[in-house]
Write the structure tokens for this entry.
Amino acid sequence: MLAAVGLLPVTAHAAPARPASPAADATTNLALNKPIEASSSTQNYFAPNANDGSTNTYWESSGHPSTLTVKLGADADLDSVVLKLNPDAAWSSRTQSIEVLGRKQSAADFTSVKARADYAFEPGARQNTVAIPVSGRYADVRLKIYSNSSGYGGQVAEFQVNGVPAPNPDLTVPQLSWEPAAPSESDRIKVNATVRNTGSAGSGATTVDVSLGGTVAGSAAVGALGSGESATVPVDIGKRAQGSYTVSAVVDPRDTIAEQDNENNSRTADTKLTVGQSPGPDLEVTGITSNPASPAVGANVTFAVRVHNRGTSAVSAGSVTRLTVGDKTLNGTAPAIAAGESAMVSLSGSWTATSGGATLTATADATGVVTETNEDNNVLARSLVVGRGAALPYVEYEAEDGTYDGTLLEADAERTFGHTNFATESSGRKSVRLNSTGQYVEFTSTSATNSIVVRNSLPDAPGGGGQEKTLSLYADGKFVRKLTLSSKHSWLYGNTDQPEGLTNRPGGDARRLFDESHALLSQTYPEGTKFRLQRDAGDDAAYYVVDLIDLEQVAPPASKPAACTSITEYGAIPNDGIDDTAAIQRAVTADQKGDIACVWIPAGQWRQEQKILTDDPLDRGQYNQVGIRDVTIRGAGMWHSQLYTLTAPQDAGGINHPHEGNFGFDIDDNTKISDVAIFGSGTIRGGDGNAEGGVGLNGRFGKNTKINDVWIEHANVGTWVGRDYSNIPELWGPGDGLDFSGMRIRNTYADGINFTNGTRNSTVFNSSFRNTGDDALAVWASKYVKDTSVDVGHDNAFRNNTVQLPWRANGIAVYGGYGNKIENNLVYDTMNYPGIMLATDHDPIPFSGQTLIANNGLYRTGGAFWNEDQEFGAITLFAQGPDIPGVTIRDTDIHDSTYDGIQFKTGGGAMPDVKISNVAISKSNNGSGILAMGGARGSATLTNVRITGSRDGDIRVEPGSQFVINGGAARAVKGVPGTRQGL
């Protein structure tokens, strides 16, 4: 909209502002293109429009009062604030009531700089400009707009802050070098980072990080520097494998020093660090085979390991090749291996396959008898899918199961959610809080690792928006590095159960308290290493809550396939912090046109601030919703090739659709994406001006699309499959035969993967989901399709997935359709909804045919929601409207449910002839093994159903229920009115 067209002139209120003076115009505008944020925005009138140097664009709030805050980066001595609207006469006269506030760089809160007053904006001679004289020294300047006589929200086309920078340091890295200048793999390498303070005031002590290929390889302390002073800081990065590395450094990486310019703290070396191969042998594991390749639970499995000698001289026979799997260690003796040759080493003994998958970790020369040129490349890990759940490539360690000096947090009996309950939101419903310096969590690794993920909670910043703090990592008592933790993407506030009503503004009840930090380590640490997360000096958050830790042996970056063309050929530059979207888009477009065969995203950090899609040739409106097709995109591994955005979707200027965000890929058909990570900048779902977090992968998806080994984090939705038919009908193409595997989806504000709009014959396999803000996995047979008799969500399968800690809604859900299957999954720790749910809310195309729930494990699932009045079982069937026929539940374990094990919920429809067989239900803490609510209708037949330890009895049919349970001793008991009666 053009918020000014057609409005009648208004009379200015008292205290009109003076016109901008020549002196004010001559003063430096310190706000131009600086970071800017708003309390709310409407449509595509976002905050960055207000300091982009153009009056043709503007910001508009969604209501009153509203704030617009520009961050200067450091204190400045202010002279005036100048506000402009478009001078076009279409912008009729209006008066806005505005207060100016400021925050000093040393302060946590804003104070009033100019009291609230009315300012008249008039087109024509006055150019719709007002200047507000101010004084004082501030780093952030905020407008608080209380009213606008135009009838719209606060409006600003240009927000200028005039003044001069106050004396402050300015840290730079003018030079990088390394010793030795031409190292080999056997040399420890030291990078010398020259740090200079080019500012007008002294700088306090800080740190400098050195990265190789975008991954931090080492850190060192930087002492205090006076104005104009320099220091050369040596940073030990250890031994490195043969190859060429891009070296970069950043001083004050966590912005602990207020500087005149925070954008010049990094440098990338002009030349690459080239590490040569040392003469001698070097063994590495290049493959692991199992027999059988896909074992069943209980099968005896044997293994062979391929060992390669990449060195320059032969290795004699006799070195030990070792494989660990579960609690088994298997050994074999390697033969002599010539330089450049490989050998298959058969291992003695076998492993009995257990449910849940396994990580296979193989080590060449496990006993260290061979002196190698590189001792850090002997380990290879891969996953083996067995029974239930995903074969996770990492090993997970619960903080409470280790040794700790801190406070154990445990959930209450009902696992109450939404009231700042850390333990309820913790894995296993327990975590450890570190309150003071010296406290720690320690655990011993059961396999080799070169990476770490920490699920944690830090306090929010006082005014919201989160903060970053460090926590110290030790291995076997030796300091490894500071890990950077963040609360930027956690802490949602409000009493509402509607996620769109939650806010980022601190106050009252909070939820979504946890987030994760991950880091590649500079070396591989062997099995048996004692890792400690400790609160040291400088780790100064008010507290740290540690929930769990993942350790993973990450493979080296993959090499570029010969058929692929790198995005660097189209201008992308890794690790420089500059937006690479245009280069990535050019490469994808070239592939789509057939000019290249495959897009290669090399190892590195690649900034992406616009979604990759296809230009709409018909230009059908503001939001382009034409996806890519016939494209293959490959990366060097999800830990290595990482796309990220720094801009929250609502602040991205309306690129594509705000709901879909400014990162990831829009897919229409026949697209393959593998071995990359996509990290968004979402912080909320809906609240604070409908500020949704964006979608990592979205679109029609079509046929022959395969997404494998992709890590998505901090999105609103990980993957949303399907578009409404009304959205460009000529491009209609529902997902058909889609293949998702190896997905790692974390910390979203809504769904993990949702199959909708007629998606059929599609699978999510061997994938993991943690802390999703809605269903981790869902089929929604929506009616927004071309033909509701044909375009039904059907024959989709969710197999061998691991779901943890959905903070809103279900682990896995199906809404309508037929032939859908939920098999071999593990679901843990849902906050308020079932582990698995079949339902007819959300107005789906009704259920028909068969729906299968088989061989799943559900642990600590179910919960209370909707004002805590509705209690959900681990598995819940809810026929809100149409019936839910044809359901089979079999071969399933349900343990430690918060309420009922299996629940038939009150609704308008029936659930006829449900078949339940070979199901074990134990310890239903606050409910029954099986419950039929008072308004439930239908029937279930039980065969070999074992129920133990239920508070309210094995089988419970509430008074008035028309639900019949056969095959078990159903017993009617007195219901509890108002607490368990459905929606």
User: Anything to note?
Assistant: The two ends are 39 Å apart (CA to CA). Helices lie at 22-26, 581-593, 687-690. Confidence is low (pLDDT under 50) at residues 1-26, 969-983. The longest strand covers residues 66-84.
